[in-house]
Amino acid sequence: MAAILLQTADWLFVIDNMGLLLGGTAVTVALTVASILLGFAIGFPAGAIEVYGSERASRLVEQVGVVLRGTPLLVIIMILYFGLSISSSAFVTATIALGLRSAAYQSQIFRGALQSVDDGQLEAARAVAMSRLEAIRHVVVPQALRRSVPGFQNEFTIVLKDTSIAIVIGIGELLTTGQNLYEGGQSTAALEIFLAVSLVYFVLTFATNRSLDRLSDYYAVPEGTT
Amino acid sequence: MTQPLLSIDDLHKSYGSEEVLEGVGLEMDQGDVTVLIGPSGSGKSTLLRCVNRLTEINSGRIALDGEDVTGTDTDVNELRKQVGMVFQDFNLFAHLTALENVTLGPKKVLGMDAADAEAAGRNHLEQVGLLEQADSYPAELSGGQKQRVGIARALAMDPELLLFDEPTSALDPELVGEVVEVMRDLAAEGITMLVVSHEMDFARSAASDIVFLDDGEIVEHGPPEQLFQNPTADRTEQFLSRLHAHEETA
């Protein structure tokens, strides 16, 4: 193993092509951020509807969620791009596919978090004359968001790595860029390239998780009975 | 004749086939402190929750200042601005400090600006003896302190009537006194209070009326000295002697 990893030429090849890999990284980051934001914009209200919506609305959201969670991401991307052709831009299509799938998962993170807030909190807010919506917004949601951080960290990591599936509609993100480097026959440095790519994923995941931990600590409130 | 502040007429409430309140009637004037006692399951808390419509009634009438508040056209949020509530389990907003708990309603509901709400909130915390804990979160407070914040939170809305739902039942015995003391102060200030509690100390010293509720109906209603010394109904007497025996052993 040590002998393989010490092949200086291969590492030099990786370093020479760092620019390309970073370009792929930029695509990965852009795709992840856009998808997570779209997933939040849809997933948060969806989770809230599952908890607080009318029976009909919550059942509808639940059923759509089940279908999205039960369909492989690859299939979702292919259907959106080649089947429905919702956009001529592969990036937009990939964002929508990843975003919708993430929304389905995020809705469950927020549903669980909202349900975990004691009913007495909502009742006490109603008792100081807040409307149901105000009570949810000012009292339940701030507590639920704090509790959704761990689940959200998971979801971020999953979306980050799943962006690589976007290659099926021709998006060259980080992993694909790396793959192209040795598949083009310019080098045999496959292992080194994958290690470098893994390192980038690790740095991104680590940095984001730490940032979310910081955010969580900043907004943390002492736990216990209220 | 002046109008009663609260008047409840022939109130009925069922959960499914089980009738919890079977035609309850009650009147309170401004400044009255009415204590509801009765065995568990007698409908005390339900009656209380009907007044601010956390629970909807089946039939009957509840009027505040002579105005029916049970209709579908009544704005429940307007009603709840007039009727504050203190909960058995405190239910302080977990993510907010003591001061923020007290100011949230005035800021979001009454539209008070932040500085005014804070100044008023500090006064209310001082009133319950907790000014120094203004920046503490609920989890950092003792049970008695939490309940006093709960009282300050209700007071901050400047209600006409305060409902107390077993405010000391969830407290360790040694913490009951501080809450009772605050409630006694409020009673002395002339705040109208409808209290579900078996805290006899409070009932004897601060109540203007005692109402004994059993099986969903009012069995007896009178001033504390009369109801405690010379109860007219057998059921009241039995209940009081059980309560008394319990107090002795506690």
UniProtKB/TrEMBL annotation, chain A:
A Gene Ontology CC term for this entry? Answer: ATP-binding cassette (ABC) transporter complex
Classify the main location.
membrane
What are the record keywords, sorted? Amino-acid transport, Cell membrane, Membrane, Transmembrane, Transmembrane helix, Transport
Kindly list the places in or outside the cell where this protein is found, as annotated in its UniProt entry.
Cell membrane
Gene Ontology terms: biological process: amino acid transport
Transmembrane parts of this sequence: 20-52, 73-100, 189-207
Highest taxon, organism lineage: Archaea
Domain ABC transmembrane type-1 per the UniProt entry, residue ranges: 25-212
Q: Name one GO molecular function term.
A: transmembrane transporter activity
Name of the protein described by the UniProt record: Glutamine-binding periplasmic protein of glutamine ABC transporter
This chain's source organism reads Haloarcula japonica (strain ATCC 49778 / DSM 6131 / JCM 7785 / NBRC 101032 / NCIMB 13157 / TR-1)
UniProtKB/TrEMBL annotation, chain B:
Question: Which terms are listed as keywords in the entry?
Answer: Amino-acid transport, ATP-binding, Cell membrane, Membrane, Nucleotide-binding, Transport
Gene3D superfamilies for the chain: P-loop containing nucleotide triphosphate hydrolases (3.40.50.300)
Membrane topology of this protein: Peripheral membrane protein
Q: What Gene Ontology terms describe where this protein resides (cellular component)?
A: plasma membrane
Q: Which CDD domains match?
A: ABC_HisP_GlnQ
Q: Where in the cell is it found?
A: Cell membrane
Identify the residues that the record assigns to the ABC transporter domain, covering every copy: 6-240
Q: What is its main location?
A: membrane
Q: Which Pfam families match?
A: ABC_tran (PF00005)
Q: Name one GO molecular function term.
A: ABC-type amino acid transporter activity
Give the domain of life.
Answer: Archaea
Q: Which family does it belong to?
A: Belongs to the ABC transporter superfamily.
Name of the protein: Glutamine ABC transporter
The species this protein belongs to is: Haloarcula japonica (strain ATCC 49778 / DSM 6131 / JCM 7785 / NBRC 101032 / NCIMB 13157 / TR-1)
